[in-house]
């Protein structure tokens, strides 16, 4: 299924105004920016496919060194499609893998070898003898000799024609950690704690993640004839900018690629968002100045000179490469300041559902109809209160018919200890004693295999009870206005989820048609480390698009608002509605988050951020309020922000 989720951007570089050499002058590696990850994967797969065919026509082998993980999946799916539908043969292909955990059995689902076989090798016609994978079962006393033989095999194959790399969050390439020397070869390495945390969810806890790995070294990688480095999503944006525009630094091993003569970085627009030509294009070329783009530039200038909007001077514009904004728009700097101030001021509203009988010409939400029917989609059973709990409170308190739809059960995020504690409490209260039964069920689990269905159902029940309690604390009727969708894509029993199906979409369609909302709130978040948020927004948009195509008239009266998950916040230049929270509402929101007891203290997959969810939520919304204050707006305790998504 093609991606639906992409926010439209306004303004930016004027096409053709300057040559690419000028626009990309800060970039030390040739970089291609694709509109979406899907488009980027198609481009990379097309190059690999053409190389395979060219080598076959010449009667030669095409030697590929391939990465694993999430980044290359789209590339492999497109290669498989070309094999099945267009006759692309892999009989002349030789594959070398770049890395593997150590120790690990290749039959384990967490193995990178397992992943590569599942996504590519098992689905094409490559001879088994031409696949070379790093073996995580080699005895420790033979690893050094084994790695030398692997290097020799690469040379015997004639060297690597195309090497496909992903980009680690700290700039790793393959599994070469920060501090890796340029002369390293295939070897065993120690994994950093940060790297182990990133994959902890796949292993059901960091304690199960191997502490070492086998990896090609920097020198081996740099000898490839062609290197393609890929990165998708905004969580790669900061490191991508460092790799592409920073200096060569051993702390960011991917930066060594600046010294390669035939390398290209392929990013989607989200991953490229910190590159100069995207983040601050006025520094490299002539721009098209739409109102929203002007807001982006002025807010950047305010941060740069550390001034509120109305105190920015003409000289500030000139000294920071924004003279063209004044020249191109024909406005004086003070008029631009007032325009942006008013534009941002009008995003603020304490009436997210619209204020009845009020002039809504400058308000983000329309006043009519009132009250409104509202659906809040929450990927997990706590994202609603964490990310937009204050707005949730306002919508209920102001009399709207608010419904919450929990898209997944969230069962894999419940620790086994929570199950036993819940059962122990039930036993102490005199209810049926199931403690011993579930203790044995937990003990029977096999690492890396889906959890028993009975255990998953119980964990899902725990999260449903917590969600109901949080919703009741806001005054919501949890019998009629709380909906648990249990979308099928999620219910695999493991961290790896299934593909979106029509069954997922139909469930959302049925709910929307039943409620016929005037407002939809959904998590437009791409930085969720486990990917569920991305899938959930795709399902909602696919459902809305299908309803639109089938001509449901109620949709003409519906507005969609996107909030962020716990991991990141919208930049202010994108914000369409900002809902201020009072100190009491912040506390009420915190207490609702507390209701999710299974997610406190011992969350199985916390990521790098050690703060509890209520702390992240408060820090984020208070930081947003401080930004508004610093820009010259009124001072609030906290602010939740939203972006309007154009349904039509």
Automatic annotation (TrEMBL):
Its EC number is 3.5.99.6. The keyword Hydrolase applies. Keywords: Hydrolase. It comes from the Bacteria. One of its GO terms (biological process) is N-acetylglucosamine metabolic process. Residues 38-262 form the Glucosamine/galactosamine-6-phosphate isomerase domain. Transmembrane segments: none annotated. Pfam families: Glucosamine_iso, PIG-L. GO terms for molecular function: glucosamine-6-phosphate deaminase activity. InterPro entries: Glc/Gal-6P_isomerase, GlcN6P_deaminase-like, GlcNAc_PI_deacetylase-related, Glucosamine6P_isomerase, LmbE-like_dom_sf, NagB/RpiA_transferase-like. NCBIfam families: PRK02122.1. This is Glucosamine-6-phosphate deaminase 1.
């Amino acid at each position: 299924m093609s991606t639906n989720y992409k926010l439209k951007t306004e303004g930016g570089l004027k096409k053709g105004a300057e040559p690419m050499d000028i626009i990309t002058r800060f970039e030390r590696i040739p970089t291609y920016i694709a509109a979406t990850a899907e488009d980027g994967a198609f481009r990379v797969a097309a190059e690999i496919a053409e190389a395979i065919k060219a080598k076959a026509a010449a009667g030669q082998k095409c030697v590929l060194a391939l990465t694993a993980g999430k980044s290359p999946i789209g590339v492999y799916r497109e290669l498989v499609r070309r094999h099945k539908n267009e006759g692309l043969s892999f009989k002349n292909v030789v594959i070398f893998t770049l890395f593997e955990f150590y120790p690990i059995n290749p039959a384990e689902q967490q193995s990178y070898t397992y992943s590569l076989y599942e996504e590519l090798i098992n689905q094409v016609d490559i001879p088994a003898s031409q696949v070379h994978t790093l073996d995580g079962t080699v005895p420790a006393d033979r690893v050094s000799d084994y790695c030398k033989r692997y290097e020799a095999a690469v040379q015997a194959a004639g060297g690597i024609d195309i090497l496909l790399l992903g980009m680690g969050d700290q700039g790793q390439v393959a599994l070469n950690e920060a501090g890796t020397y340029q002369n390293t070869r295939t070897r065993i390495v120690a994994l950093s704690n940060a790297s182990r945390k990133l994959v902890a969810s796949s292993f059901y806890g960091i304690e199960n993640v191997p502490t070492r790995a086998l990896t090609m070294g920097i020198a081996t990688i740099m000898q490839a004839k062609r290197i393609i480095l890929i990165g998708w999503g905004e969580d790669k944006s900061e490191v991508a900018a460092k790799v592409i525009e920073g200096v060569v630094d051993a702390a960011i091993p991917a930066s060594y690629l600046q010294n390669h003569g035939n390398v290209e970085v392929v990013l989607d627009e989200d991953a490229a968002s910190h590159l100069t030509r995207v983040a601050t294009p006025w520094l490299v070329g002539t721009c098209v100045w739409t109102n929203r783009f002007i807001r982006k530039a002025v807010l950047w200038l305010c941060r740069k000179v550390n001034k509120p909007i109305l105190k920015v001077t003409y000289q500030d514009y000139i000294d920071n490469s924004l003279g063209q904004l004044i020249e191109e728009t024909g406005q004086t700097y003070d008029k631009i300041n007032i325009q942006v101030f008013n534009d941002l001021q009008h995003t603020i509203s304490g009436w997210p559902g619209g204020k009845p009988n009020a002039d809504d010409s400058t308000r983000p939400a329309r006043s009519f109809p009132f009250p409104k029917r509202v659906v809040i989609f929450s990927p997990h059973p706590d994202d609603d209160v964490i990310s937009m709990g204050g707005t949730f409170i306002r919508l209920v308190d102001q009399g709207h018919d608010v419904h919450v739809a929990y898209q997944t059960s969230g069962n894999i995020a419940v620790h086994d200890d929570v199950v036993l504690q819940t059962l122990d409490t039930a036993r102490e209260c005199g209810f049926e004693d199931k403690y011993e039964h579930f203790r044995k069920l937990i003990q029977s689990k096999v690492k890396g295999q889906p959890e028993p269905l009975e255990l998953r159902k119980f964990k899902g029940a725990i999260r449903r009870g917590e969600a109901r309690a949080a919703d009741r604390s806001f005054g919501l009727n949890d019998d009629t206005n709380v909906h648990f969708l249990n979308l099928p894509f999620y219910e695999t029993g493991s961290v790896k989820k299934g593909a979106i199906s029509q069954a997922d979409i139909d469930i959302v369609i049925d709910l929307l048609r039943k409620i016929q909302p005037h407002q939809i709130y959904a998590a437009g978040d791409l930085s969720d480390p486990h990917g569920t948020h991305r899938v959930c927004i795709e399902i909602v948009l696919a459902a809305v698009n299908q309803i639109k195509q089938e001509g449901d008239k109620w949709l003409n009266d519906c507005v969609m608002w996107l909030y962020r998950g716990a991991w990141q916040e919208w930049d202010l230049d994108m914000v369409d509605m900002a809902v201020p929270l009072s100190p009491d509402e912040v506390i009420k929101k915190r207490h609702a988050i507390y209701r999710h007891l299974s997610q406190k203290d011992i969350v199985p997959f916390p990521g790098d951020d050690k703060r509890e969810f209520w702390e992240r939520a408060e820090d984020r919304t208070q930081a947003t309020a401080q930004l508004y204050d610093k820009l010259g707006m009124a001072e609030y305790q906290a602010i939740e922000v939203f972006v309007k998504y154009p349904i039509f």
